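Before relying on records like the one below, remember that each one covers exactly one chain. Contacts with other chains, cofactors or solvent are not represented anywhere in the record.
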Amino acid sequence: MDKKVRKIGFWMDPIQSIKPHKDTSFALMLAAQALGQEIYYLPKNGLSLDQGSARARMQQVTVTDQPIDFVELGAEVIEPLSALDVILIRVDPPFDSEYLYATQILEHALTEGVAVINNPKSLRDCNEKLFATEFSELMPKTRVSASHEDIRVFQKAVGDVILKPLDGMGGSGIFRIKADGLNLGAVLETLSPSESQLIMVQEYCPQISEGDRRILVLHGKPISHVLARIPSQGETRGNLAAGGRGVAIPISKREQAIANFVGPKLLEKGLRFVGLDVIGGQLTEINVTSPTCVREIDKQTGSQIGKDFFTAFFDQ
């Protein structure tokens, strides 16, 4: 890697509230700092425009890999985003109107020569559920609709299904309906009251018991291990936020093939840090906003994913 010192901003949720032992943004900060880069914290509500020039409140950061007193913040300043070399977008979903406006401001920075990861326009274009349907041949049977009748017809034909909102994260709002269709009406009323919201409904993959596999794809290429997020007893969701247990395992040939197929499209769209979700060898989601699982994989395998990410980016 070249020796140039860069200023790297992290636009993210409140840094004081993160859990450093499991936070991927923190892992990326540690890696950038270890590589001799300057790192800056940009609070979620700190973006602004001045005569069309993108600005942000920001504080220089020093991070320490420990459970308490893990961050030291410098004085807050308001600076043009063009003062930074790189900005990592790390605010968690939901992708609401404020998130949308923020990507439009961050796109100003992109046009001013700042490397913004992931590309703000692609974040707007690539809903994490809908984007996966561009690769429908890799997915379980899937339908997206607001129509209760449409979904009932699909469920009757497929049997055991999973229903989820298009804007959820961490397993929130996910329901399983078995082949008998019991409680489907209640779930439809919850997820799409008066048929007002689009819902994704997918064929249930029983291999979830072996884990919802997170494949991290850096600069269009998958890393060597995936995190199998195994549901807790009585759960159908493997998400760590829903109580799942994460086990790092070598990537399978099928998972490698999925990542290799999707990777060029990700790179084309400027999506450089992405998490693919795969169950039973089938793609279910493409996470582009703030993918996680770096800390878990690093801890279990001895990898240095953050270092690999930045080294590859700076060497290109």
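The longest strand covers residues 53-63.
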